[in-house]
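Hi W., the OOB complex you wanted:
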Amino acid sequence: MQSHYLAGAVPYPEEFARLYREKGYWIGQNLSDFLQECAEKYPHHIAIYCEDQQISYKTFNLLVSDCAENLYQLGLRSGDKAIVQLPNHHAFYIIFFALIRLGALPVMSLPAHRFSELNSFVEQTQAKAYFCADVGAQKFDYRELARKLKSMHHALEHVFVLGESQEFHAVAALLETPELFQPSQYSASSPEQVAFLQLSGGSTGIPKLIPRTHDDYLYSVRESSKICCLDETSKLLMVLPAAHNFSMSSAGALGIFYSGGAVVLGTDPSPAQAFELIRKHQVTDVCLVPALVRPWMDKAAKDKDDILSSLRCLQVGGARLADVVALRLIDEFQVKLQQVFGMAEGLVNYTRFDMTKEQIVHTQGRKLCIDDEILIVNDEDQPVPQGDVGHLLTRGPYTIRGYYNAPEHNLRSFTTDGFYRTGDLVRLREDGCIVVEGRAKDQINRGGEKIATEEVEQALITHPQVKLVALVAMPDEVLGEKSCAFVLWQSQPDDPSEFRRGLILKQYIQNVGLATYKIPDRIEFLDHFPYTAFGKIDKKSLVKKFEIQQVS
Ligand code: OOB
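Structure:
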């Protein structure tokens, strides 16, 4: 069975696969049949509200079949990879499931990604198709990006554009019923196979791809849906990027589809827009990152609006929610709060609705499955005493065993017995709840958007005037963290001012084509860098500069 496993992906060892089947976690269903089953169970329920459209489960499933057939007729085949970089629009879900129905593998990308990330995804996957919008935030034209990618990669045959498609295929045409319908030539891959490649926040130069199987992903979806108490009456507002793992599966859109509820799509997470959608559709559930919580609370307080208490659940995850904010949500706004601590690689923890207020406010919840194995270790991989802070390692029925096509990186990110090194510093309480205390990985969590410091440093160092660079997190009231690049500048007689140099470097990063959120928020110039005893740049002492500034 495993000989057909996606090349470049690390399969679960057979004894674990057997155990996960025996325990009923893996039920042998693929994502295409999952949607089909949802459509049979809830044909006339609305699955998606998008702008002025509402799409029932039956129509959703038919659109997926039409789209799969159209893609097949255009030449997409089982095993092909297709990059999906779409905004929060119903086409996102239709294309995702259509690719799966065809046996092709969606490769998830965020709207904020730019040339650098997309180029890496095409290189890593040899993608045959790319799905994008016409223009995005700040009038960014994805079609220009598509042209550049296509000119560089022969494998990339097809580009599909949502909106003004110019010389490319129109996404809208994919949703039309094909004249000739011969669906028998293709089928979704089998349940134990990799279904799609999810995005990792990453901590290295190249963004890593995460191979998720139908079996493992759907287990996390079903279980999340139960933990979040979703049912046919649930309406989930989706203003976070739809492709993110939180939005997809914790419990996310897929959890909603499983329970027969509806996803309400929005592209603007600002409270003004979001509150309007909540009212219009009588939304019951919302998932947010902590950075959005403060503006939502401020707006609700200013307008004396009790909208937050009208929700059945406000989920917050992706970055650490400050305890005081959690407390304020509950005490001042009567919010039914759920904290979510998860990762695209697998493991998800939730606070449960029946937990005490203390647990909901002060912890990031309990693991999803009793067979999620959790180890908390010191720097030498030895277990720390119960209750102490250490590195979180995990293994379980929906946590990957390796990144896609990354054998060397996998040696560092996984233990020899298959535990994923999350890079998070946590404490496990006696009650089974996890508290996230920090991070050991070289990553900045900018309001839930992850920045691998090395990736930005590598881009900056290619600037001819940059001799040395270190990117570190600086505290930010709204986003939690922002990025600051410390730079040793190679002086020239006609050097621009530090202010100008900062602008030059930000522009430079933009031109390299890194995602917008990776452009350093601040750039500081140093004559000397602090070093550790091992001769590495001492980032900890660089970070201290912000503490000094905060005090003064
Ligand atoms: C989610 O997934 P990713 O892959 O973007 O990021 C995972 C990392 C974690 O390793 C941790 O460092 C951080 O994001 N994180 C949190 C957190 N939730 C995620 N740190 C502190 N507190 C939290 N509640 O971010 C993700 C995936 C599924 C569900 C929810 C979040």
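The chain has three domains: 49-188, 216-440, 444-550.

W.
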